[in-house]
Amino acid sequence: MADKMMRTIHASGPLSGEVALVTGGSRGIGRAIALRLASLGAAVAVCGRDATALQASAAALRATGVPAFSCIADVTRAADTERLVAESQAALGPVSILVNNAGLGLFGPAHERSEAEWDRILDTNLKGVFLVSRAVVPTMIARRNGHILNISSLAGKNTFANGGLYCASKWGLQGLSGCMAEDLREYGIRVSTVCPGSVATEFSPRTDRDRSKLLQAEDVAHVVEMLVTQAPQSFVSEVQMRPLHKP
């Protein structure tokens, strides 16, 4: 009875009939966002590179009663992103919500980092958004509708010691996102960035903070919900997030 009631709620949810694709959806912020979108009635596809974590995320999504799909994919590879989008749409339908969440953090003075580390961070945090978006956008243009949400960071607005590579990737993401928004708004496609401060996940480089005072993954998911359920004539281009109390 409870399962039947949950499916009924999803069927009439605000995102009923929508299909969301969340990159890096196997853990942390990505998993929280995927589950929040499912709770609103969207069918959800997630990708990641850790097969075990990805299977657990997909199982949690299916337990909510919505259609779900998971795919191992490396967002830095064009062939992987094209396959990811094609298989997601074959399984669930045209993607109408894309959350570019996959990301890496690597910290330390820029002059001490290697070329391989530079490539790894920029390819994941910036090139990956370009590749996945490029694969999804043609369908959105054809439907003249869609949301693209790029999970950026306050590191894309501010600089700090040891953040050279990470800040470079997120400042680049801010520029890419702004230009995408201008290119796509005439097609009814909204592109937004979400810029959280430190979030209490395994990704956070700071171990000396009170994690209970950090932003939580669910806080970011709440902002994503706000963006994808805003009134159809509005367009929020950027949200900056900070914890209420400094950790």
Can you give a write-up of this model?
It is a single chain. This protein is of the alpha/beta class. The chain has one domain: NAD(P)-binding Rossmann-like Domain (Rossmann fold, 3-Layer(aba) Sandwich), CATH 3.40.50.720. The chain is built from seven helices and seven strands. Helix 2 packs across helix 7, helix 4 runs parallel beside helix 5 and helix 5 packs parallel to helix 6.
Task: Count all strands and give the number.
Answer: 7
What topology, given as strand order, has the largest sheet?
A: 3-2-1-4-5-6-7
Classification by helices and strands: alpha/beta
Shape descriptor: globular
Secondary-structure blueprint of this entry?
Elements: H1 2-11, E1 19-22, H2 28-39, E2 43-48, H3 51-63, E3 68-72, H4 78-92, E4 97-100, H5 115-143, E5 146-151, H6 164-184, E6 189-196, H7 217-228, E7 238-241
Parallel strand pairs: 1-2, 1-4, 2-3, 4-5, 5-6, 6-7
Keywords for this structure?
247 residues, alpha/beta, Rossmann fold, seven-stranded parallel β-sheet, 7 helices, 45% helix, globular, disordered N terminus
